[in-house]
Amino acid sequence: MFLETICILHGEIQNRQGHEERMRQTASHFGFKAPALPDLLSLPVEELRVSKVKCRIIYHNTIEEISFERYTAGKVSSLKLIEAPIDYPFKFADRKTLNTLLAQKDDCDEILITRNGLITDTSYSNVVFGQGEQYFTPESTLLNGTKRQKLLQEGKITEKRIDRNSLIEYDRIYLINAMLDIADGVSLPVDRIIA
Description:
The strands form three sheets. This protein has a five-stranded mixed beta sheet. The protein is built from three helices and 13 strands; from the N terminus they run ββαβββαββββαββββ.
């Protein structure tokens, strides 16, 4: 089973095209036809109109489950660097591998995964590094997320090779995903990344 997480903000679906494209790419890779997204806004969920809502869709060749919950970003004040030979190019509903890595976070709030010393992602987000007024995202991502793709297309972030030794070149690290944008401010100083 595969997972798609979609942000609905004040009654508007965010980046629907990006999510549909990822579903098509996933289906094509695994040899099935992606199911069409239903009209999510016609579903009887009143909160869809008044807040930020996280819509989770579990699918394979059909939509298996749709759930909604009001979304509030969690606070992240520390990241633990974890080296792992992980490969995660598709968004699976089963997050066992990522959860196993997350269990190694010690006293930190979240993990930042490196592969061969290169920065990739956290357990639930892509990352962007701030350097003055410029924003960079690692080219060595685990999952090329829909928000990451959108920000790259808009020219708001630039891909760059970032390894654990070059972290000191940056001011802040921002966590981004379908629910989080740079402007949401889920970020921390790079000195809060613990080796």
